[in-house]
Design goal:
The chain has helices spanning about 5-15, 20-35, 45-55, 60-70, 100-105, 110-130, 135-145, 145-155, 170-180, 190-220, and strands spanning about 45, 75, 85-90, 130-135, 185. It is mainly α and about 240 residues long. The chain folds into 2 domains: about 5-130, Winged helix-like DNA-binding domain superfamily/Winged helix DNA-binding domain (Arc Repressor Mutant, subunit A); about 135-215, no CATH class. The strands form 2 sheets. The chain has a 3-stranded antiparallel sheet. α2 crosses α4 (about 60-70) and α7 (about 135-145) packs antiparallel against α9. The longest helix has about 35 residues, at about 190-220. It is elongated and about 100 Å long. Mean pLDDT is about 80; it is low at about 95-110. This is Helix-turn-helix domain-containing protein.
């Protein structure tokens, strides 16, 4: 196995289908692990260890490895919680059925065919990005996406919501609302924007109204009631 060939192929693929930062980080992490393992496949990598080493959340890691698999760079087998860690294997030139010689002598027809396949894969990527997901999966993804929560906190500029953890109860409340409305699936991007709009236009507004009402009731409770004419005696 030639380490440099895999690196070169990665950047060659990146010219046509740009990888996300998470996909790039994960791929080079797996390359390093494969090299440490003397290229014995598959590589056993616990999700918690990858997240700790790369700074990715579990949800980001899942999206990254799915992206790398769809783009033909890796394969993986999901782990079983508390039982078996996920395993990964790096797709090589040999497993792809390609060699340097065969690649160099491709005909124009073969090149065109490869381009069509690549375009189809890109279209599939776009389609999958807009695929509908169950609200149970979406709820888990949004709860685990701390970076997204930090962005929302910055956008809201509300002193009552100063930490990402403050959003968690509202996320659960939002998905409870969707279940009441019999919503079972949603696009991820639509779900995120729906939550942000509901948070900004309804949840915070309702909390503010409740806060003002409580202050008003508190002021009323301390009003002094005059019970006799003597209460007016004295200088003002």
């Amino acid at each position: 196995m030639e380490y440099i060939k895999l690196i070169n192929r990665f950047w060659e693929t990146n010219r046509n289908t740009q990888f996300t930062m998470a996909e790039t980080t994960l791929y080079f992490y797996l390359l390093n692990e494969a090299n440490r393992n003397y290229w014995q496949m598959p590589i056993v990598c616990a999700t918690a260890i990858i997240c700790a080493s790369t700074g990715m959340t579990k949800a980001t890691l899942i999206r990254a490895r799915n992206g790398l698999k769809k783009k033909g760079l890796i394969g993986f087998t999901e782990g079983v919680q508390h039982s078996r860690a996920p395993t990964y294997h790096i797709r090589t030139f040999e497993t792809d059925g390609e060699t340097a010689d065969s690649t160099a002598h491709k005909t124009d027809a073969e090149t065109t065919h490869a381009t069509i396949i690549k375009d189809n894969n890109i279209n599939k990527e776009i389609s999958n990005h807009h695929a509908r997901m169950s609200i149970d999966d979406l709820e888990r993804i949004l709860v685990e996406d701390v970076e997204w929560q930090k962005n929302i906190v910055c956008q809201l500029s509300d002193l009552r919501i100063s930490e990402p953890t403050h959003l968690i109860p509202y996320i659960h409340k939002f998905f409870a609302y969707l279940r009441i409305c019999k919503v079972t699936e949603k696009e991820e991007s639509d779900c995120r924007s729906h939550f942000f709009n509901k948070m900004k236009k309804e949840y915070l507004k309702t909390n503010n109204n409740n806060f003002n009402k409580q202050n008003y009731e508190s002021k009323r409770s301390i009003e002094v009631t005059v019970t006799s004419p003597q209460a007016y005696e004295g200088s003002f």
